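Sample entry (355 residues):
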Amino acid sequence: MQRQASCLKVPKRQGETTLTTVKLLGLIEKDLEIGKDNDFLYIPVIRRPSATELKTLKKTGVDFEVSTGLFSERNKKTRINAVLQSELSLHSLASLPRAADFVGEIAIIEIPPELKPYEKSIGNAILRVNKNVRTVLAKAGAVSGTYRLREFKVIAGEASTETIHKEAGCRFKVDVTKAYFSPRLSHEHQRITSLVREGETVVDLFSGVGPFAIMIARAHANVKVYAVDVNPHAVEYLKTNIRLNRVIGRVYPFLADARKITDEKLSGIADRVIMNLPESAIEFVDAACQALKTEGGFIHFYSFINASSSVENVKLIFKKAVEKSGRRVEEFVCSKTVRETAPHEWQSVLDVRIS
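Predicted structure, serialized as tokens:
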């Protein structure tokens, strides 16, 4: 999107001097990109400079001309850079993270070690650019433990880690310090939902606060989804989200170990099993196979791959685990990477028909 604004037209060789002066005067329009052609820069300003400001500019010896023009609006990362220009060097600005995760009114960012001294400034810049954000969290550790939790540090805004995240017409209440939730899986939640057919029974073995289970139940009036998780906080939020999204009687929450609950209550009932536990889902393939109906069904299996492995390796390992459980892989319907989780590491998914 473009917007008209006043600007200073200056020769490129004098651009740095002009930018420094314009910033000192508080005239720079931070929400717009600087324009340029072969010979000149066009620096957008918030208004036409006053007589005193023009005098200051002339003292620098810059050959400038006050004009107007159309300028592209900065994207949010560029706008954050603009907010931080007076505090961070060009080298530090280049080290800013490429993106943040937004869970409801919470922004989550990974601060590189070299930018730790500026984390509060970065957090405040994110608040300034994203008006709907009230809390900025910095990652303070890796996802770990049975509950897949991560430590966070509040670097700006309110000291609250609970929020309501909206996704595809659903609302998910979650505390990101107590239950795992990834907004980067939004496409997967919707994709799996689109594969479910009316009348199916679905078992979500590692449901968390319910993004797969609730979205499926919201989209299909005649389904049953059994949502299982071992984290008591996640299951409490799951129960809240069942009420929030009005899917009582279609989603059934269980606080339990996936293998134990399958053996006791969910054996042989499922047309489809979701296994979104990429760290260790392979250890529960037998439980997923047990949950499927006698005639078979589908398993959606998530795992991690890296530079030394591949989706094909995952297929081989998964197939052996299925055969060990007494079932057979009939077809790998879909196999792909879902998202990058770290440098040279990705989350992958297999959609598999099991007989």
